[in-house]
Amino acid sequence: MRYILLLSILFGLAAPMRGPEPVGGLEPAVRGPEPFILEHERDIAQVQPGPHNGTGTTIAYSFFAHAQGLTLVFRKRVLLPGASIGYHLQEKDEIYYILSGSGTMRMNDSSFTVRAGDAVLTRPGSSHGVFAGADTLVVLINYLQK
């Protein structure tokens, strides 16, 4: 029986799942923004030059850019070999998380290697930039909008 149910679900033969039935014949009210948003990176990818006057070609994924009331910026940026995010002054806390590859981050008067698994918090008043070098560097970037 479980096997048949699993096959039915996999092949779309089962009846669609429904939410809770309305109480007293009334539909439940939806308050505020949508309860969730699912975005696929293939649908939002944009080829762009390196931001902040950076070099080379990058691919930007600005997830949830059109979500009503969301103040969190959640971006993925792919820096192709030789690309960079230009050196710039930081105005708010920003987190860089390296998903894959390696590169060089310049922070104020220092430069250091970043690689997959590294997280860097840049604070207001500091300056920084990231260079991909010979590898493709994939970075998640998060900060709060003002």
Helices and strands in order:
Elements: H1 2-10, H2 41-44, E1 46-49, E2 57-63, E3 72-79, E4 84-89, E5 94-100, E6 102-107, E7 110-115, E8 119-122, E9 127-131, E10 137-144
Antiparallel strand pairs: 1-2, 2-3, 3-10, 4-9, 5-8, 5-10, 6-7, 6-9
Rg calculated over all Cα atoms: 21 Å
Largest sheet: 6 strands, antiparallel
Shape: globular
* Low-confidence region ranges: 1-30
What string, H for helix and E for strand, traces the elements in order?
HHEEEEEEEEEE
Per CATH, what is the topology of the domain at 43-144? Jelly Rolls
- The CATH class of the domain at 43-144, by name, is Mainly Beta
Compute the average pLDDT.
84
**What is the H level of CATH, i.e. the homologous superfamily of the domain at 43-144?**
Jelly Rolls
CATH architecture of the domain at 43-144: Sandwich
- The strands making up the biggest β-sheet line up spatially as 1-2-3-10-5-8
SS element count, helices: 2
Range of strand content = 35-45%
Terminal CA distance reads 55 Å
> Helix fraction?
under 10%
3D structure, described in words:
This is Cupin domain. InterPro entries: Cupin_2, RmlC-like_jellyroll, RmlC_Cupin_sf. Residues 79-136 form the Cupin type-2 domain. The protein starts with a helix and ends with a strand. It is mostly beta strands. It has a domain at 43-144: Jelly Rolls (Sandwich), CATH 2.60.120. It has a six-stranded antiparallel β-sheet, with no helix packed on it. Helix content is 9%, strand content 42%.
